[in-house]
Amino acid sequence: xxxxxxxxxxxxxxxxxxxxxxxxxxxxxxxxxxxxxxxxxxxxxxxxxxxxxxxxxxxxxxxxxxxxxxxxxxxxxxxxxxxxxxxxxxxxxxxxxxxxxxxxxxxxxxxxxxxxxxxxxxxxxxxxxxxxxxxxxxxxxxxxxxxxxxxxxxxxxxxxxxxxxxxxxxxxxxxxxxxxxxxxxxxxxxxxxxxxxxxxxxxxxxxxxxxxxxxxxxxxxxxxxxxxxxxxxxxxxxxxxxxxxxxxxxxxxxxxxxxxxxxxxxxxxxxxxxxxxxxxxxxxxxxxxxxxxxxxxxxxxxxxxxxxxxxxxxxxxxxxxxxxxxxxxxxxxxxxxxxxxxxxxxxxxxxxxxxxxxxxxxxxxxxxxxxxxxxxxxxxxxxxxxxxxxxxxxxxxxxxxxxxxxxxxxxxxxxxxxxxxxxxxxxxxxxxxxxxxxxxxxxxxxxxxxxxxxxxxxxxxxxxxxxxxxxxxxxxxxxxxxxxx
Length: 485
Hints:
Elements (H helix, E strand, L loop, with lengths): L2 H23 L5 E2 L1 H4 L1 E8 L5 H18 L5 E5 L2 E7 L4 H9 L4 E10 L10 E6 L3 E4 L8 H4 L15 E7 L2 E8 L4 E2 L3 E7 L8 E6 L1 H13 L5 E5 L2 E4 L11 E5 L7 H12 L7 E9 L1 H30 L1 H28 L2 E2 L1 H30 L4 H33 L3 H32 L2 H5 L5 H4 L9
């Protein structure tokens, strides 16, 4: 074995073994996708025709919201004009779906009058927005009712037209506690730079601290001057979240929102801060499909796939050993090196960038075994051709690899192009299949040059392996016991 071959073999064994042991030692494993881990899949569709930019913006906002929810390894992608959201391992399905699809259009509307709730429940005290760090509560103002207002439809949410007066409810724990007649929208959520939930202080309830943009701070102060000592409703997605009385004429770019009635709970405050922080969806999304995937079903699918792949791999390796003798063991160890590299890379990508291993990915890895084994067969058959032409096994090793390498590269590059096109043109499971097929094919190129070539060269120069009666390299290549033709 040449020195360069010894270095390449030592390097790949050290990298593969070290990476695998390090990954295994830290207890890291690849993250499983929705079909293996279980969770929720929802398909969202815009309620009107939209362009590519709006769809992409919606996907970006949804992805930010899901990341903030703490859902591990979510997959948000497009399927035609629909948006497919996969939430593996999600525990609170309803909350996740509510946050994902909520338009969260924040509007500031002046309160014109108060109306009783539909269920005649007495209205709760109103909350007041003040400068950051202070929240006060005031009693509700007088309720007024006119003949015109009595004709307003009694639905939970009216059409929230920002240019016209509307009647919108305040809802606490699923119950309408107050209705408001509101004037046209003065400001939208575009003035908001960030928002965060704050733990209870003297008020005994959670609050949401809102920071405004530079332009938004000026606009909010202008509105505060216009409606000083008057109530302004904070409307989120057609529901009044709070109707505070403006107690300051300047807020300095930061204000505090407290919940109506008994105030915000922790969940309500965090949810409100989350949707405000990542902005509103540019279009209303309607749920087309909501599918809950069982974790036990995913485990059964993974188990069935691994069993099928294991049986197929065992049959392939048995045939390779039976046909190529000692060289068959090169295939076994070569696949082992590839598997250690694959496991380490996938685990790292899962931890670093949220890559998930789905059933389609497992299928791609199993299919790639055929690609890898083919590269070994190409090399071994080239060795046979060299030996049949009258050359010795030792002299055939390098010449055979040089000829086989061109074929291996051509075949693997073709596979990489196919995997790349699939990844680029598709979404969802097919994309996962393409990624893992491409990664496995790339690793085949590396192991073919750094592992297969030096190992076969070592076996071809060892009399023990070439002249063994049953498993000798020469017998596997149909050569004589001395390695000649």
